[in-house]
Amino acid sequence: MTKDEFLNKLNEALRGLSLNERRDILQDYEEHFVIGLEEGKTEAEIAERLGSPSSIGKDLLASYHIDRVEQSVTAGNIIRAIWAVIGLSFFNLIIVLGPFVALVGVICGLWVASLGFTLAPLLVIFDFLVHPGTFEFFHLFVSIALCGLGILLGISMFFVTKVLNKGFIRYLKFNVSLVRGGLKHE
Fold first, then answer.
1. Which value, to the nearest 10 degrees, does the dihedral of the CA atoms of residues 9, 2, 55, 61 take?
2. pLDDT digits over 29-54, tens only?
3. Spatial separation of the C-alpha atoms in residues 169 and 65, rounded to whole Å
4. How far apart are CA 19 and CA 17, in angstroms?
């Protein structure tokens, strides 16, 4: 593969990045070719030593999206980072997507439980309005206790969600480094 073919394929693989970022990366890889040619290597040897442009592009895109998630934790950034990491290898479909879906399910379930517990007194009031003869103070006190439990659960879920976000980002980084290590040995 010639230098131009390599750089064109790498540019195509990096199409998810901004023009300036692609230009910087392509310039770095062009320097690899300049240095290699000065050492007496052919363009084909340099390209072979650098590896597949599509693999390099996937790796750089995954790193880019993980960095973006660290800067701004939004649902869109997280999903883009997950898809970029999954794109590194098919094995990541199970290793990354499975834990992510499970984690989101647990977090959403606990947030819904917190909201439900917090709104429990409203249900007792609604029950009193619909069935005025069935009011019991026991139900009111239990609902107030559930409300307090819901507030405590909500506060703790706020912190747990932050910690799990950071932990999942670290997991994505670990997965990328694992794939990088695996790619080096191939």
1. -50
2. 889 888 888 888 888 888 888 888 88
3. 10
4. 7
- Residue 51, sorted as left (phi over 0), alpha (psi -120 to 50) or beta, turns out to be left
Q: What is the DSSP letter of 131?
A: S
123-140 burial: b if 16+ Cβ within 10 Å, else e: ebeebeeeeeeeeeeebb
Look at the block and give the residue holding tokens 């517990």. Answer: 117
Average pLDDT over residues 165-182: 79
If phi over 0 gives left and psi between -120 and 50 gives alpha, with beta otherwise, what is residue 131? beta
Q: CA-to-CA distance for 179 and 171, rounded, in angstroms?
A: 12
Mean pLDDT is lowest, of 35-44, 117-126, 164-173, 176-185, for 176-185
- What are phi and psi for residue 90, nearest 5 degrees? -65, -30
